Protein 1
Amino acid sequence: MTAAQADLQIDRPRVADGAALWRIARDSKVLDLNSSYSYLLWCRDFAATSAVARAESGEAIGFVTGYVRPDRPRTLLVWQVAVDEAYRGRGLAACLLDGLVARTVAEQALTTVETTITPGNTASERLFTSFAERHGARLEREVLFDSVLFPDGPHDPEVLYRIGPLPDSR
């Protein structure tokens, strides 16, 4: 953890954080932006499998959202990771991901992390590749949804990154 990260608090999101998460996602210009309503629901219904980073003021400045897959209850699917532009380049996304996974492994006995990444999103590719390396876990990649499955026109395929088994779950 860097000195810049030591000043930050990482915890579960609250409903009041929904607007900030929506803004951070919107301003990322990389993430698919969900409705503001969905971020409010996410903060209410999936707080146990999500995390926010807060500045000293308490303002949310980064987040990772996820959920436990219903058909694979030992797998955390990471939905979105984003950091406010003013706080990027400090390793905050990695800190958020590490913190969330450590918490959910301890609370829910998870063994695997999954995420999907659009080809060319090098920041996400690096984040999850380095996560696997840091934790000594295997990383597998496969196309989850081919571009022809998307009904709203041309879309890049979504590549599934599966990381596991997680070291604390063995």
Protein 2
Amino acid sequence: MKKSYKGFIAWLVLFCVGVLAIIFMDIKSIDLVGLVLGNYMFITLSLLTGMIYKNEAIYWYTGISYQEACAVTSKQRKEYAYKHFIRFLMVCLGYFVYSIIAYFLSFSFGMSIIICCLLMTVCALSTVSIKL
């Protein structure tokens, strides 16, 4: 798939659909698995956005060509990527706090995964409005 932000969102949606399918599987300790999986997803997405910030590979987000990304200043690329990184990091930390609370309150696997997927989708869609 083309390295674009639309591809990034498509990956998120497909990943969430696959994870939601696990709800219907019969696994012991599924609640803990759900919380670990949700945290793993957010941590890896935060790391991905952090790497894009560090490398200024913003064309991965926007779908613009590498040459077009190079046409703007380094500061503009960093600011653009930083806004994405901060949003995903904040949602990651928020889900981490939720997962601790959910574990002690014995929230169901389904509830935790649905919240994780909704947060991830809302976060991804909220970054579409960020302009370079």
Protein 3
Amino acid sequence: MMENQWLSHAKRLQAIASTGLHFCKDEFDRERYQEVADIAQAMLADLANVPIIRIKGLVSEFAKGYATPKVDVRGALIEDGKILLVRERSDGLWTLPGGFADIGRSASENVVRETHEEAGLRVSATRLYSIRHKAKQPYDPDARDFYKLFFLCERQDEIAPQAGVETSEVGFFPPDKLPDLSRGRVIESDIHAAFAFSNGDQQFATFD
């Protein structure tokens, strides 16, 4: 199930306003783009039931360039029929290690860094198994727009996993006994796809 249609419209209006404010020089048009931005932010705040100031804070690059989706990367490490998950301190729920892709690193390098920071393990990202548009899947609604990249990983050391600054627990779980997931970050189908790809049941990365 994709995100609410009005949420999608509001995010699109916000992106148009952001791009317009960056490139437009005419003051009359800038006023109109700002009005569109204010309306879009009010819509997003109403839909999320949060203050407008919080919505504004989510878009750190507003009116600073062409508006594009953010990139979120996640790593799947499977050992002995179980997958590595980390528990987020922010919400107490579980997810694949990962987060925002940092500028200056490739997507796979970001996965390696995030897995080390969140689970204490050194891994290599071996294969891309899924690219998803967050708005088109049943993740928790988000005022921001994301492309999510999922990689299979292999361990590069034998160190026991340990939580990092942003995580409180680390563990391996079988696919039929997953803990409560942080559904803004990962959903069950992301994990099941990792097992299918790892087992050879799925040969090519999914794009949805």
